[in-house]
Amino acid sequence: MPATDPAVLSMGEPLLEFNAAAEGTLESSTAFLAGFGGDTSNMAIAARRSGASTGYVTRVGDDAFGRALTDLWQREGVDTTHVVTEPGGETGSYFITRHGDGQHAFTYRRAGSPASRLTPADVPERAVAAAELLHISGITQAVGPSACDAAFHAMETARAHSTLVSYDPNHRPALWPAARARAIVMRSAELADIVLPNLNEGRLLTGVHEPADVLAAFAGRGPAIVVLKMGADGVLLGEEGRTTHVPAHRVVPTDATGAGDTFDGAFAARLLDGDSPLEAARYAVIAAALTTTGHGAVGPIPNREAVLQAGDLRR
Ligand SMILES: Nc1ncnc2c1ncn2[C@@H]1O[C@H](COP(=O)(O)OP(=O)(O)OP(=O)(O)O)[C@@H](O)[C@H]1O
Ligand SMILES: [Mg+2]
Fold first, then answer.
1. Closest atom of ligand 1 to CA, residue 246
2. Domain boundaries, the chain
3. Could you tell me what percentage of the chain is helix, strand and coil, using 3-state DSSP and rounding each to the nearest 5?
4. Which ligand approaches the C-alpha of residue 258 most closely?
5. In the CATH scheme, what architecture does the domain 8-14+37-88+118-310 have?
6. pLDDT, tens digit (0-9, with 9 covering 90-100), for 193-248
7. Which residues contact ligand 1 via a Cβ below 6 A?
8. 201 alpha carbon to ligand 2 midpoint, in Å?
9. What SS3 state is found at 142?
């Protein structure tokens, strides 16, 4: 048990990342940069780098990838009390390739991963009750039925103890059928205080097109805050019936992997630090933009000083 309970707990699947060094197909790629990914792990690291005490809940294998990830969290100061190491488990990984049109392709090797075997028994109920914010994503729910049960158990435990629930749909069509995704994501929005979809998945999950309508469809499920992430167009923030557009921070992007996760972590850290949702969103668009200027998901996540320096945010 850590000396003090983390304010932010994130739960889901971490992955090793292999990012092709040059443009091209996976078949033709010969060199890869190793890194780390997994949306909820990225979020935990982003929240930590923005100053929140943070813990991660997952299962990894007792393999090299599991050890590398555990070392990463420990280096970052992310609490690993609730990381279960599974004997014989094979921690998942993914490959990123880039194509001429600026598009990325992701190839996953994660079926049967330890994190897909998360169960409600892995939810640290006491730590969830003690935390200020729990973060869950649609990927946490999509990787396996028992992991989905664990996600709901964690969210219900959080609600019962006034721990805020932050939820990112992060819809990945390869992981689950659209109808199941829709049902589970929209139910999760009912349990969440903060919902953070991107525009594409928001359209797919709600069936409406206009950003304001997508935002309203999520807000109608009851969360106090909805943040609709729109890439280079920034975010639409919905709270207390008001909608505010927060423009993106201008950068020259090279790799947008993990920008949304960084937004989620930075936003949570600042809210817990006392920012209003609008102040937190202004901070988080800068943090998210900065992650797009370097390769890979975790390496370029900025710390608080870098965000404050890049933006005109005096605090
Ligand atoms: N090209 C860009 N320039 C500036 N900011 C950007 C850019 N792309 C993304 N961002 C910032 O990052 C935020 C999140 O990005 P995006 O909308 O792509 O989320 P996402 O699709 O959830 O990302 P992820 O791939 O991590 O799931 C945006 O709302 C924006 O503030
Ligand atoms: Mg996303």
1. 31
2. 8-14+37-88+118-310
3. 40, 20, 35
4. 1
5. 3-Layer(aba) Sandwich (3.40)
6. 999 999 999 999 999 999 999 999 999 999 999 999 999 999 999 999 999 999 99
7. 170, 198, 229-232, 234-235, 248-249, 251, 253, 256, 258-261, 263, 285, 288-289, 292
8. 8
9. helix
